[in-house]
Specification:
The structure holds two protein chains of two kinds. Chain A is α+β, with helices and mostly antiparallel strands. Chain A contains 17 helices and 30 strands. In chain A, helix 4 packs across helix 5. Classes of the chains: A alpha+beta, B alpha+beta.
Chain lengths: 601, 251
C-alpha cells in the first residue's frame, strides 16, 4: 500500500520525519518496502515521501488506508490524531424514492444516496495532488471523490449515473452467461456465483470488483447514486479471480472490511461531493443492513501475555496500550476484558493480544533464552541411514550432487506448472547420467581423472515415494533403495562418530566460457626440481590460467627426469581461441629451452 | 579442489554440509531430527496449519497439486484428513506438525523437532527463486515455551551458522499457523537480512495435532536453507544447487 507522508500528516501533524517513521513502522507494524522522495521539481506532490508498506494480511481490514495507518501510528507513538469527521459538512437532505433490494447473503450491507444537480468537472488541486502523489490518475471530480474516500478510510465506493438506470438498485446473483462490459471495456460473461449490482433490467457492476459501462458517470452526468456497501470477502475473491480482474476495491473487500465502516464512508463521500458541487441537492441515505456485525469481546491477563512473549508485562503497561489504542475495556480480578473495535477483525483470542502488545512494546524487549529442558530425543532412523550412506560413498571416492525432481515423463504428474516438466522423477539414474556427462566435460577444470558421483534422493512411483541411492561413473550407474543400500550398515552405527565440518570460505564463481586444457612435459637433468620448472611456467603463463600448473606425471630415465604439467585456460568474459593459447604455450616452451639441457617433449 | 583430493574422498554438496551443521546446532540444544514425505496431503500442508481453504497459497499457480491418477482434475478441498488431496509440500512445517502430533500421542512432551527437507513452489525460476529448494524447519512444545525461548534458540543457531558476531532481531509478520508471528532477521557483515518466518504456534494448530492449547504452548520456525548457504558462502544463484555440477562442491 502506497502511503503519502504529507497525507498522513493531515491526521498526525506531530509525526516524526519520513525515515524515522519508516523505521518505526518496520519494527512495530509491517515491512516498509521502499521510501521514495517526490522532488519538488516534479510538480504536484513535490516534497512528499511515498512509503510503500507491505500491510500484513491480518491488518488488511483496517490498514489499507491513510486514516488507518495514521490512527495506528498515533496510538503507537502516543501522539495526537486529528479526527477529520467534524470537518465533514453534512449536506441538507431531502426525502428520497431510492429503493435498494438485497437478494443475496453475499452482500452484508448496502447504502445508497441520490444526489441531483451535480456538475462533472476537474477536481480541486488537493484532490489531484493526493491522487498523483501515490501514482493514481485524476479522472473527474466525482470519480476522484470515490477514490479519495477509499484511499483515505479504505471503504470502496462507487457512483452510478442515475439517469442511465432503470428502476431500483438490486444486489443479486448474476444469471448464467449474463453479460457486462466493464468501465475499461472488457466484455465479461458472468456465472451465477458472481454477485452483481443491477437495476430492474441489467447488471450494472460486478459487486465489489468493477463498475460497468452502462451506468458510467460521464461529462454530461447530472444526477448520481452513490454506493457504499460491504460484500462477502470469499465471494469477491473468487469472482475477481475467475474474471481475472485486479482492482483496489477487490483488494480491500477480499481482505474483509467491517460493514460498520459504511456510514462513515458515506459521510466523507457526501462531504467531498458537497465541497466540489455546492449547488447539488442531496437526498436521504437509504441503508440496508440485514445482519449487524456482532459486538465481540476478548479477555486476557497480563500473566498469559507474559507467558507467551517470555517477557514480563505489567497491568499498567497493558492499560497504557489499551488507552492509547482507544480500546474500551474493563479490568476485573486480574483480567482485562476488551470490546473489540469493529474494524479490528484480526483480534479474536488472547494470543492476538500477545502479538498486539509484543509488537507495540517492540520485540527487541524480548530477551533470548535457551530453555533448560531435559529433552529425550529419539534417534531418527531415516536420517541415520542417509548419513551412513552418504558417508560410505564419500569415503569410496564418490562426490555428491543434487539434481531436479521434475522431469518430462513419469508416473506422478502435477496439475499445473510454471515449467514444461510436469512429472516427478521415477529414478535418480537419468539425472545422474546428465551430471556425469557435464562433469566429465569439466574433468580437467576439476582436476580429476574420473568422474564419480552420487545422489541420495526421493523418487516417485504411482503409489508411493521412496528414497533411493544412486552412484556411478562414466561406465556404470547403480541405483537401489536406501533400505537395500543400508543392509550392511552396522547395527550400532551412531551419528556421534561423525565429525561434521564447519565450513567457512567464499564461493569462487566459474566462467561461463569454455576452457582449454594444455599439457607440457619437460626433460630436465635429475637435479632440477619440479618447482624450478613450475616457476618458469608460472612466470610466463599470463593471467588466463584458472587451474594449474598441476604436476600430473613424473618419471626418471638415464639421469634425466620428466615432469608433465597441466594448465587450464579460461576467461571470465570471452571465449579463448586456440591461437592465443598456442602463443602462450610457445612462449613457455621457448623460455624453458633457454635453460641448458632442458627439453620440451 | 586441491591436488590431494584426487582419487581420495569425494566432495560433499554444500547444502549437505550446511544441513549437517544445522542439525548439529539443534541436536546440541535437545532437538530431535524429524523426517516426512515430500508428496504430502493437503491436510498436513495446509489445513492442520490453519490455512483457510480459500487462502491464496492454495492456488494452483503457487502450489503443485498432484493429478489424481483416476483422472480427476478438481481439487476437493474437503479439509479433512480422510479425503485429502496430494501436494508437493510447500514447506517442511508439515514435518514439524507430524512429529509434534506423534510425540503428543506417545506422551513425549515437552519435545522439540528439527528437519531439513526439500520443498516445492510453483513459480518461475530466477537467481533467487527455484521450484525446488531446501527448508529448515523446527518447533518446540511444552508447558511454558515462549517467544523468548524462540529467540534464544535461533540466536544460538545463527551464531553457529554465520559466526559468533551474528545478531538476530524479530519484526512483526503474519502466518496462518503462528500467533504472534514474526520475521527473523540476522545481521551478517553489517546488514540485516531476512532469514525465516517464525512465531508461537496458533492454538488451532495445537488442537489440530491433538494437543490442548490451554495446557501446552510452543514455537515454530522455518526458512530456506539455500538462502543461508547463499549468504554464508556468497553463492550468487540458487539454481546452481541443482545442476549436478561438481564445480559447486568447493567447501
Amino acid at each position: 500500500m502506497k502511503i503519502s507522508y504529507n497525507w498522513l500528516k493531515w491526521y498526525i501533524p506531530e509525526a516524526p520525519d519520513a525515515q524515522k517513521l519508516a523505521d518505526l513502522i518496520t519494527y512495530h507494524l509491517a515491512e516498509v518496502e521502499s521510501i521514495t522522495p517526490l522532488l519538488s521539481e516534479e510538480g504536484v506532490g513535490g516534497g512528499d515521501y511515498i512509503l510503500d508498506i507491505k500491510i500484513l494480511p491480518n491488518r488488511a481490514h483496517d490498514l489499507l488506508s491513510h486514516q488507518g495507518v495514521a490512527r495506528e501510528l498515533a496510538s503507537l507513538l502516543d501522539i495526537k490524531y486529528v479526527d477529520p469527521t467534524p470537518k465533514y459538512k453534512i449536506p441538507e437532505s431531502k426525502p428520497t424514492k431510492l429503493k435498494i433490494e438485497i437478494n443475496t447473503d453475499k452482500c452484508r450491507r448496502y447504502s445508497g444516496r441520490i444526489i441531483r444537480g451535480i456538475k462533472v468537472g476537474p477536481s480541486p488541486d488537493w484532490v489531484v495532488q493526493h491522487l498523483e502523489s501515490i501514482g493514481q490518475r485524476s479522472i473527474n471530480n466525482i470519480v476522484d471523490a470515490t477514490n479519495i474516500v477509499m484511499l483515505d478510510c479504505s471503504q470502496p465506493t462507487h457512483a452510478f449515473d442515475l439517469d442511465k438506470l432503470n428502476g431500483s438498485i438490486i444486489v443479486r446473483e448474476a444469471k448464467d452467461s449474463e453479460e457486462l462490459t466493464t468501465l475499461d471495456n472488457k466484455a465479461l460473461k458472468l456465472k451465477n456465483s458472481n454477485i452483481v449490482i443491477a437495476d430492474s433490467a441489467r447488471a450494472l457492476a460486478v459487486a465489489g470488483v468493477k463498475g460497468g459501462r452502462i451506468a458510467e458517470v460521464d461529462n454530461k452526468t447530472t444526477n448520481i447514486i452513490l454506493e457504499c456497501a460491504n460484500f462477502d470477502p470469499t465471494s469477491v475473491r473468487k469472482t475477481a479471480q475467475a474474471l481475472n480482474i485486479f482492482t483496489d476495491s477487490r483488494k480491500r473487500f477480499e481482505n474483509d472490511l467491517s460493514p460498520e465502516l459504511v456510514p462513515y464512508a458515506m459521510r466523507e463521500l457526501s462531504a467531498l461531493i458537497l465541497e466540489m458541487c455546492p449547488e447539488a441537492i442531496f437526498e436521504d441515505i437509504v441503508d440496508v443492513y440485514p445482519k449487524k456485525q456482532e459486538i465481540r469481546k476478548l479477555s486476557f491477563s497480563a500473566d498469559r501475555i507474559s507467558n507467551i512473549l517470555g517477557l514480563k508485562v505489567s497491568d499498567k503497561q497493558i492499560e497504557d496500550i489499551l488507552k492509547r489504542y482507544v480500546f474500551e475495556y474493563v479490568y476485573e480480578k486480574g483480567k482485562f476484558e476488551i470490546t473489540i473495535p469493529p474494524m479490528r477483525l484480526d483480534l479474536v483470542k488472547a494470543e492476538d493480544m500477545a502479538e498486539e502488545i509484543g509488537r507495540i512494546l517492540g520485540y527487541d524487549k524480548v530477551k533470548g533464552n535457551i530453555p533448560k529442558i531435559n529433552f529425550k530425543p529419539k534417534v531418527n532412523e531415516k536420517y541415520s541411514q542417509i548419513s551412513w550412506a552418504k558417508n560410505k560413498l564419500l569415503t569410496d571416492g564418490y562426490s555428491e550432487v543434487m539434481t531436479y525432481t521434475f522431469c518430462d515423463k513419469g508416473e506422478v504428474e502435477v496439475m499445473q506448472s510454471a515449467s514444461d516438466k510436469k512429472f516427478l522423477r521415477t529414478n535418480l539414474t537419468d539425472g545422474l547420467k546428465e551430471s556425469i556427462k557435464l562433469n566429465h566435460a569439466n574433468a580437467p577444470f576439476l582436476g580429476i581423472d574420473q568422474v564419480k558421483v552420487f545422489e541420495v534422493g526421493t523418487v516417485f512411483k504411482k503409489d508411493k515415494e521412496q528414497i533411493n541411492v544412486c552412484y556411478g561413473d562414466k561406465k556404470n550407474v547403480t541405483e537401489i533403495s536406501l533400505d537395500d543400500f543400508c543392509k550392511t550398515m552396522p547395527s550400532d552405527f551412531s551419528l556421534s562418530t561423525f565429525n561434521f565440518k564447519h565450513s567457512t570460505g567464499r564461493f569462487a564463481p566459474w566462467s561461463l566460457f569454455p576452457f582449454i586444457a594444455r599439457d607440457i612435459a619437460v626433460w630436465v637433468p635429475e637435479n632440477v626440481k619440479n618447482k624450478d620448472v613450475e616457476k618458469i611456467i608460472k612466470e610466463n603463463m599470463g593471467d588466463m590460467v584458472i587451474r594449474g600448473p598441476e604436476l600430473f606425471d613424473e618419471f626418471k630415465k638415464d639421469g634425466k627426469v620428466s615432469y608433465a604439467f597441466r594448465l587450464v585456460f579460461q576467461s571470465y568474459d570471452r571465449t579463448l581461441t586456440d591461437a592465443e593459447v598456442n602463443e602462450i604455450m610457445n612462449k613457455i616452451t621457448d623460455k624453458i629451452k633457454e635453460n641448458k639441457d632442458w627439453q620440451v617433449r | 579442489m586441491s591436488d590431494d583430493t584426487k582419487n581420495k574422498k569425494g566432495t560433499e554438496h554444500p547444502l549437505s554440509i550446511l544441513a549437517n551443521e544445522a542439525y548439529q546446532a539443534f541436536v546440541d540444544m535437545g532437538f530431535e531430527i524429524g523426517t516426512g514425505p515430500e508428496l504430502e496431503s493437503d491436510w498436513y500442508n495446509f489445513y492442520v496449519l490453519n490455512f483457510p481453504k480459500d487462502h491464496p497459497a492454495l492456488d494452483m499457480q503457487d502450489t503443485f497439486w498432484v493429478r489424481d491418477p483416476k483422472g480427476g482434475c478438481e481439487i476437493n478441498r474437503s479439509q479433512t484428513q480422510a479425503t485429502s488431496d496430494k501436494v508437493l509440500r510447500t514447506h517442511t512445517t508439515t514435518v514439524t506438525a507430524r512429529e509434534l502430533e506423534k510425540a503428543g500421542k506417545e506422551g513425549r512432551l515437552p519435545a522439540a523437532f528439527i528437519s531439513v527437507g526439500k520443498v516445492f513452489r510453483n513459480e518461475a525460476t530466477d537467481i533467487t527463486h527455484e521450484m525446488q529448494f531446501f527448508q529448515i524447519d523446527g518447533g518446540m512444545v511444552g508447558e511454558n515455551i515462549s517467544l523468548a525461548d524462540l529467540k534464544g534458540v535461533l540466536t544460538n543457531f545463527y551464531k553457529k551458522m554465520l559466526g559468533e558476531n551474528t545478531e538476530i532481531e524479530f519484526r512483526p509478520s503474519f502466518f496462518p499457523f503462528t500467533e504472534p508471528s514474526i520475521e527473523v532477521f540476522a545481521k551478517f557483515n553489517g546488514k540485516w537480512l531476512e532469514m525465516m518466518g517464525a512465531g508461537m504456534l496458533h492454538p488451532n494448530v495445537l488442537r489440530n495435532i491433538g494437543l490442548d492449547p490451554s495446557k501446552v504452548q510452543g514455537f515454530a520456525f522455518g526458512g530456506g536453507l539455500d538462502r543461508i548457504a547463499m549468504i554464508k558462502w556468497g553463492i550468487p544463484d540458487v539454481r546452481l544447487f541443482y545442476q549436478g555440477d561438481l564445480r559447486l562442491n568447493q567447501f
